[in-house]
Design a protein that fits this description.
By secondary structure, the chain is mainly α.
Length: about 375
Amino acid sequence: MPLFVLMLAPFAFGTGAFVFAGLLDPMAADLGVSVAAAGQLQSAFAVACALGGPVLAVVTRRHDRQRLLVAVLVFLAFANAVSAMADSFTLLLAVRIVAGFFGALALPMASTLAVLLVSETERPRALALVVGGNTLAFLIGIPLGSLAGSEFGWAASFWMTAGLCALVAGLTAALVPATGVPPPPPPGAFARVLRWPMTGLFLLTGLGFAATFSSTGYVGPVITRLTGFTGTGIGVVQMLVGLGSILGLAFGARLAAAVGTRALPALMATIVATQLLFFAAMAANPGPVAGMVLTVLAITPGAAALFAVSPIVQNRLAAEAGPAATVAFALNGSMIFLGQGLGVVLGGGAISVAGLPAVGLAGAGVAIGGLLLSLRIPALRPRPVA
């Protein structure tokens, strides 16, 4: 039961991060800004997470992880409630920045608690379960936010997330035992992880998420453009992102064991292809039926390829970093958030310059950079037999 509750923490956090992605059109209209500007609410949250994660990990290293996670979830519940009541874009942007900075602790705290609660042999399964909460956000939480927002107004998506965070905070306080303070990272941990090829793996993570979120960050307008769906229909189609992410995690785990980083170029090439498909489909304006088929072909494989990269990168980081693996995972997590934020910024810029179809071109350009980088990452050298 404690592990299941810990899985709900990244589920609540991930839901709150992009809960309004399918509601950008009505939000922009109500707040008096462009769709591209409304999308920056997501980038502000994600970039604040990227900055807040490492800073708060150092500042809070002497605090009990269970109490800290409860405090973070309570704060996120409050921040989402304030977001629901915000009556201006400026106020909402400020709240999202603060929420992202302090909410960045949710996933690393849940992961740390999972590690402390199980034996060493059970750690991979426990970590996979906790990280799976993030994929459930894309499969269930974010689409539900779109459904709530389409029925009761975009503020309802924030009220839903506030209630979810409060519920998970209560469950964490009641069912997850306190574990004390974990040991500090070994001396020289940061110097150990800031070297090649780990720096290349961090950058690859950021580029993969930036490429994908240049279009996924505007998934509501993209789905409407391709299929004609609005409201509830957007929420249903959004579930394809979650389905792809779950399939990708499972497939990536197998690839990590079988071929390791040699699979990365093919996965990055898939992201390039799906982003180009987004551009071609929106530029051609094929009609609702063909548009739906193209949406499925672009969203699901693209999400699967992105999330298949994660187990491969994490496995390689663990092998390269050794006792500094926790630090490597934290930095890689920051690159996920930074990539998401920069991807939304890039997509917004593309919309402002060349219109909505250009988000696919922008994403493809970034993914090509990731593809070229992946070709330079060497295969893991076999360890000598003692």
